[in-house]
Specification:
Helices cover 35% and strands 20% of the residues. The protein has 349 residues and is α/β, with parallel strands linked by helices. Helix 7 links the parallel strand 10 and strand 11. This is Glycosyltransferase.
Length: 349
């Protein structure tokens, strides 16, 4: 079986999930090529897991000051280039497209009658059992038309429906995994970096390790700025006493796995992050703020750590399910993977 894996490149969450999948595909000898879209080619980093991957412009959003800029997003869409890339992507040599909310490979496969398995956090929202907190019909229509699939496999923190599986969180060996209580990992890539620094200055008793696309490695008092680095980020996440971030799915999943308390500032006008924040809030797994709120920080700093959720680390059962081509039969996969999540630790909405 030869697979083309299409990955949404906006943000790093989809890429993090793809790294776990790529390692297992490689270990099990599955022939996989990789396509990314959603950001400029020079903005990808730590991509050794994907060998000779291809990059397309695709679709993405433009943000400003912590919220989606709808006008600039539409202005930068380049629909003619998108159509050209979809029509120009030759899939004759592939048996399957495995897709993580990436539109070019999904639409090219639809036009060329190649089956598509759409595995993403977004796909979980297609079930009416998953909390959507309003505008469900419109949002589900958007998901289905953005990256259409033959079979949808959702990824979520709870087993809301039979076609939803838990996230795979890779096991990492960290330089110093012992928690440092006053250390806080900060990842707010959609906020203005200067605004983030000014916000953190009000809390001199904490050591903030702040990763940001515009940062260069340096320290401003107790604020330690860090350029994007997957290895450095994971090491700082492992021993941080808490995490401040936007409400992306993958970082929250990694933090829940480690039992880190979360303070979330979801990206404004981005419905997935808004839903994630509300879901985690209702689970009692995060504090949420709509802006960089000092009072929210004060409350959060006094809060206890989360329970650890032992999400699975090995997607081999998923890869074997893909190989068998019985994609409509997802019940056994669902049951097997959720059995690995300790039911007593599971947080229920």
């Amino acid at each position: 079986m030869r697979i083309l894996y299409g990955i949404q490149g906006t943000g790093n969450g989809h890429i993090t999930r793809a790294r776990v999948m790529a390692s297992t595909f490689r270990t099990l000898g599955v022939d996989v090529d990789y396509v990314f879209s959603g950001r400029k080619e020079q903005d990808y980093f730590d991509m050794d897991d994907f060998a000779d991957y291809r990059v397309f412009r695709g679709l993405s959003f433009t943000s400003k000051s912590g919220q989606v800029d709808s006008f600039k997003t539409l202005k930068n869409a380049r629909p003619l280039q998108l159509i050209k890339d979809i029509k120009g992507l030759d899939l004759r040599h592939y048996d399957l497209v495995f897709n993580d909310f990436e539109p070019i490979t999904a639409w090219a496969a639809k036009q060329q009658n190649i089956p598509v398995i759409g595995m993403s956090h977004q796909a979980a929202f297609l079930s009416d059992k998953v909390p959507m907190f309003g505008r469900a019909f419109f949002r589900r229509a958007l998901i289905r038309n953005y990256a259409p699939a033959s079979v949808y496999l959702g990824v979520h923190w709870q087993p809301y429906a039979e076609n939803i599986i838990p996230p795979f969180i890779a096991t990492h060996h960290h330089d110093n995994p012992v928690m440092v209580e006053n250390k806080v990992l900060v990842y707010l890539p959609f906020e203005n970096l200067n605004n983030v620094v000014e916000y953190l200055k009000d809390f001199p008793e904490r050591e903030f390790y702040c990763y940001h696309p515009d940062a260069k490695d340096c320290s401003i008092g107790n604020i330690h700025l860090r350029a994007p680095s997957r290895v450095g980020f994971l090491n700082d996440l492992a021993n941080a006493g808490g995490v401040i971030g936007n409400a992306g799915f993958e970082l929250a999943s990694e933090a829940l796995q480690l039992g880190k308390k979360l303070l979330l500032k979801p990206l404004g006008k981005q419905f997935e992050q808004g839903i994630n924040a509300q879901t985690l809030l209702s689970m009692g797994a995060a504090h949420v703020m709509s802006y960089l709120n000092p009072n929210a920080m004060d409350d959060w700093l006094q809060s206890p750590q989360n329970k650890k959720l032992n999400f699975p680390s090995d997607p081999a059962p998923l890869v074997e399910w893909i190989r068998k081509k019985q994609w409509e039969k997802v019940d056994k996969l669902h049951k097997y993977l959720w059995q690995q999540v300790d039911l007593e630790q599971k947080l229920i909405v």
